[in-house]
Design a protein that fits this description.
By secondary structure, this protein is an all-beta fold. It has two domains: about 10-35 and about 45-125, Elongation Factor Tu (Ef-tu), domain 3; about 135-240, Jelly Rolls (Sandwich). The chain is about 5% helix and about 55% strand. The chain is built from one helix and 16 strands. Strands 1, 2, 3, 4, 5, 6, 7, 8, 10, 13, 14 and 16 form a twelve-stranded antiparallel β-sheet that branches. Strands 9-15-11-12 form a four-stranded antiparallel β-sheet, with no helix packed on it.
């Protein structure tokens, strides 16, 4: 993936699609720098400590139902909100999956400007950030079958896990989705790795992770049951 214009970044938090309200987003993934210099050293020695994930979002204030103000104000301080961020909204684009909480919400700004807001979010789960790919871009589904695009993530190592985030923005009656894997892009011998649902309301689901080793390399979502129309999106990743 080469250089690209940053014009279509995607942010899904729980059952809220923040994408259309933002004009700036940044993920900050870092590790503590711990000094471990012993006597006799002429240079400092350092080692990595605990990791930290935080994110900042800026955009334009709106206060109606389903807009940033009620979303962030109501959920201020709520932990483990399922979050997926990506540089593009298209399937197979790299994405970061994590569970976080909004700990600072700053609405309003300077006179004479379009009213802004800023949000600071931090991870609230020991897993931290998982790097994966968008497997299902935001879209409506009302029938069973494979949905989205299969993503080639490689094998899940013996010390790794398979992860997925699944977002429901508008809900019908009920939906159940499985995550499948296979050794080929056509999924000719797909294996079910985990079930998500049944889900009956809007929100985000952090799939119960699946332990490796998994020798398959391709992964996708498959709707096994649905009643009504659901607006959904999701990503799949591999991590420790």
């Amino acid at each position: 993936m080469g250089s690209f214009a940053f014009v279509d970044a995607t942010t899904w938090i729980g059952g809220f699609d923040a994408t259309g309200y933002l004009n700036q987003m940044a993920a900050n993934i870092s590790t503590e720098e711990l000094d471990c210099t012993p006597f006799g050293s002429t240079y400092r020695r350092r080692t990595g400590g605990l990791k930290t994930l935080s994110a900042t979002y800026s955009g334009f204030y709106e206060a109606g139902t389903g807009t940033p103000d009620p979303e962030f104000f109501t959920n201020l301080g709520t932990s483990d909100r399922v979050t997926t961020i990506s540089s593009l909204s298209t399937e197979t684009t790299p994405a970061y999956l994590y569970q976080g909480g909004v700990f600072r919400y700053s609405p309003f700004g300077q006179i004479g400007q379009v009213t802004p807001f800023q949000v600071s979010q931090s991870s609230t789960n020991a897993v931290g950030a998982i790097r994966g790919q968008v497997a299902k871009a935001k879209a409506n589904v009302s029938s069973t079958g494979a949905t989205g695009t299969g993503v080639n993530l490689g094998q899940v190592g013996a010390a790794q896990f398979l992860y997925a985030t699944f977002h429901v923005f508008t809900a019908g009656t009920t939906i159940t989705v499985i995550v499948e894997s296979d050794d080929n892009a056509n999924f000719t011998s797909a294996t079910t790795r985990q079930t998500i649902g049944p889900i009956t309301t809007t929100g985000g689901t952090w799939m119960t992770r699946v332990a490796g080793a998994i020798t398959d390399t391709h992964y996708r979502f498959n709707v096994t049951a649905v009643t009504g129309t659901f607006s959904i999106a999701g990503a799949i990743g591999i991590g420790s």
